[in-house]
Specification:
Oligomer: single chain
Number of helices: 2
Distance between the termini: 29 Å
Largest sheet: 7 strands, antiparallel
Structural class: alpha+beta
Strand content: 35-45%
Shape: globular
Radius of gyration: 17 Å
Length: about 210
């Protein structure tokens, strides 16, 4: 997969001949149009009426059967957890979490895409663009013997804007998911544990 910060993500699929081709374009919700500050920008305090939650809250998406937990002090700032996209922010900070998903063709080779995309993300670790990249699959919460999502997770270096932890995955219905937790690069390390906790809380097949 060709990693971009804005616009579209092109999903790369490797053929049996060893070459890679662009299978199709998956809409990639950008940091800017989901409300995350641009590189170097700072939140000037919470907008009027934005109040962080008093306790952690777990949200579920009935359509695609997944859930995630948002810590106390965060507020929903865009979208709907029960729709195809939503965004949350820790009030008064640059910490954000958002997700979006989109349907792929029924014959889209998800496993091949995951392997090709993980290879690309791993190569970018060597180049210094990413700090880490790994395979991440999710077994169904209701039946651990079954695989409910397959994908790859990376932590980027923040050289091109806010620093991000991203899990991209496909569910059993061949829907593509992008889950992203981010903070300004200068604030990432203090925020990292909390951001990783949100990404780790995502579970399919509940």
């Amino acid at each position: 997969m060709r990693r971009t910060t804005r616009g579209w993500v092109t999903v790369a699929v490797c053929t049996v001949l060893g070459g890679c081709a662009d299978y199709g374009k998956v809409a990639n919700t950008t940091l800017g149009n989901m409300g995350t500050p641009r590189a170097g920008a700072k939140d000037a305090g919470a907008p009027a009426g934005e109040v962080g939650s008093a306790a952690p809250a777990t949200y579920g998406n009935k359509a695609r059967n997944f859930q995630f937990t948002i810590p106390a002090g965060w507020a929903k700032v865009d979208g709907d957890p029960n729709s195809d996209s939503a965004q949350f922010r820790k009030v008064g900070t640059s910490r954000h979490f958002n997700f979006h998903y989109t349907a792929m063709a029924a014959d889209f080779p998800a496993e091949t895409s995951v392997k090709a995309s993980l290879k690309s993300a791993t190569d970018e670790v060597k180049q210094g663009t990413n700090l880490s990249a790994k395979r991440r699959d999710d077994r169904c919460a209701s039946d651990p013997k079954k695989l409910c999502a397959r994908g790859w997770e990376l932590v980027d270096s923040g050289k091109q804007g806010p620093q991000r932890i991203i899990w991209q995955a496909y569910d059993t219905g061949n829907y593509y998911f992008n889950f992203m937790a981010s903070a300004e690069a200068s604030e990432f390390e203090p925020a990292r544990s909390e951001l990783q906790g949100i990404i780790d809380s995502i579970k399919f097949g509940s």
